[in-house]
Amino acid sequence: MTKHMPYESLGKEKIVVVFIFLLAAAWYLPWRAGVLNDNHLVFSILLYGAELFSFFTIMLHLFMTWRLALRQSPPAPPGLKVAVLIPTLDEPVAMLRQTLLGAIRMDYPHQTWLLDDGRRPQMRRLAKELGCNYLTRPENTDAKAGSLNNALRHVEADFLAIFDADHIPSKEFLTHTLGYFGDENVAFVQTPQDFYNLDSYQHIKSPRNQSIWSEQSLFFRVIQRGKDYWNAAFFCGSCAVIRRSALDSIGGFATGTVTEDLHTSLCLHKKGYTSVYHPESLAYGLAPLAIGPYLRQRTRWGQGAMQVWRKEGILLARGLTIPQRINYLASAITYFDGWQKAIFYTAPVLVLVLGWLPIVDMGSSTFLWHFIPYYVFTFWAFEEINRGYGRVLQTEQFNMTRFWALMVSTLGWFRRKITFIVTPKTASAIHGEQHYMVPQYTILGANAVAIPFGLWGLSGYHTIPTGALVAGVLWASVNIGLAALVVTMTMVRRHRRGEYRFPVPIVVRIDDPLDLTELAIAEDISLSGFRIYSRLAQEIAVHGKISGRLLLPDVEIPFAAEVVGENKGGTGKMRTVGCRFLWRDDATRDRLGSFLHGSDLQWRVLGLSERVRTPLESLRIWLMGQGLRGNKVRRWIPVFYHRLDVPGDQQYVGLISANTSGSRVFMTYDTLGPEADVQMLTQGKYQRQFLRIKADFSERVGSSAAPVYVYQAAESASG
After folding, report:
1. Do 682 and 660 contact (CB within 8 A), yes or no?
2. Residue 58 burial (CB count, 10 A)
3. Rounded to an integer, what is the distance from CA 366 to the centroid of its chain?
4. Which of 286, 321, 356 marks a domain boundary?
5. 321, 345, 376: which is the final residue of a domain?
């Protein structure tokens, strides 16, 4: 921890919940030790051990997240020598093209290097075309760490920005991170690893509101900020800047493990360097598309953590402060969660099928008076500690998903040589996902069979008390529900498209000789295709071709496309048309890519959020009588507008939300004055309408092309 580090405290109300949780633990855990069942002692001890492990990890988590560091980026000093390093092995050319374009267009002067361990001629050609430096080597020793260390021998720079092949940086990445290096003891600055494909395996989207949660939300929004307070945030392998001299002092990027990022961080902290976690999202990558890549990635992380633990010691490592040791222990020990969860998933089966009772008088009221308060406040405290990013149900769902992978990963402690495997980045590289769900199918089937078996045993032979039976059935039902969620989610996540479709609305001016004012909206847009809403949709579908211009903040992009699908409304009229781009050159295509990638535009424009209200926040809102409804996902209508508060008759283009009651959201590429008076012509799916609004500034949304401005719009008149 740096002196006088600004921080976000947990808050008095949340502290009260944590205090009650600790009282409940002091009430439950000692009592639990005194009711072990001697008749099934091994089983009873294992289950109690799993509960103690859970409490221990909660204490570690509480220590990490009690205070969250608050960071404000200092301005980047001029004249620093910066190199951007992008390692690649076998990722698609199109993916690398977008990453390199994003790296090149970053604002601060720098060199961009493509480090090609695949030794592919097309990568060399791509680097030459885009004006990047290209570097390869004859062998792939030490995998990614070896590739980066090889670059150190060729690159002259004081600071190195590292990006994975799929992580596309924003324009502001360097200007928002380099300022921290004014402190000469700062070794690296890490930023969140965010992802643009919100339909990935690790994302869960609510169909009713703007809530989208990622399995990594808790780590990057809360845990890393907590670690940062204790000077224990670690390098995550991408989306970071590292001081070259600090790397040189430890002999370069750490080798000998499959997690060079965690390993390098620990070595730098042992050397006495400090780290910075800048919590602003400044780069966006591609999250695993299916369960296979997701689990293989988590397994590699766990194996690497075990290798680092064995090699460096963590708890006994010289040079680390006590808080740093606790933070690194918390990161490494989390992979043993798999063993704990396996015990919880199999325990009700043993209770219902074999009649093994882990607790004496399991069905008594004494058991309930101890058990219920402890677990209710365990989950409640978890939600409050994690500031709305924890989400107990979704977290337990992913615990069920990965428990077997985590168990396997801990065996990495005993393996000295583990092959580094790159996570597949495309849908075409994913095959045969069913076998990854064998553990979940097994848990689901075993618990489902155990319930009728237990009921039959009670009615026929009275093998277990009624209270224990009820507890076992409820416990097994929870396991069945979690396993069913995993199986269902895995089965429905099928990525038939080769590219992610951004749900960002873009105004389109359609080439129509009969009506030069026709506007439409392109949504679900990628570099391959889009879906278009227009009054001319029927004519577009009939003719099979469309041309026009995509109206972006800084440029109008001409395009041509062919119709590949259609969606008719309930009345039989055409509502939307699916189209495939027919690009005339790569430069035009790249302009659209620059707008879509490397920013959080889809989050900000659509009002998406990872965070939900904690129980305390929901309770407060309910007591104030404000209700608990979430906001609906925004739908948009294209508009021509002109400003009544300024002279002239200049016409602009924008978007307004489709809701017709209350405050609406108005989005434009132009800056308006405070409470601007605007008259507009809306172009809905079936009719046009004149509207007059007062536009009050809400926020400026940065994109890789140019800013987008969002206003709250109150209807003042219509005509």
Report:
1. no
2. 18
3. 42
4. 321
5. 321
Do 655 and 574 reside in the same domain of the chain?
A: no
What predicted TM-score, i.e. pTM, was given to this entire model?
0.92
Within a domain: residue 625?
Answer: no
In a domain, 495, yes or no: no
Domain that holds residue 586: 506-597
Say if 519 falls within a structural domain.
yes
What is the 8-class DSSP label of residue 502?
B
Identify whether 143 is part of a domain.
yes
Residues 218 and 317 in one domain: yes
Same-domain check for residues 94 and 146: yes
Element (H, E) at 284: strand 283-285
Question: Residue by residue, what is the 3-state secondary structure of 627-692?
Answer: CCCCCCCCCEEEEEEEECCCCCCCCEEEEEECCCCCCEEEEECCCCCCCEEEEEEEECCCCEEEEE
Give the closest residue to 598 by CA, choosing from 128, 172, 16.
Answer: 172
Chain centre to alpha carbon of residue 323: 27
Question: pLDDT value at position 462?
Answer: 64
Distance CA 434, CA 261 (A): 31
- Strands (E) across 89-199 are located at 111-116, 133-136, 159-162, 168-169, 186-190, 194-195
pLDDT at res. 571: 46
- Counting as low any pLDDT under 70, the low residues of the chain are 1-3, 207-209, 363, 416-432, 458-462, 496, 512-517, 538, 568-574, 625-634, 659-662, 683-687, 703-705, 717-719
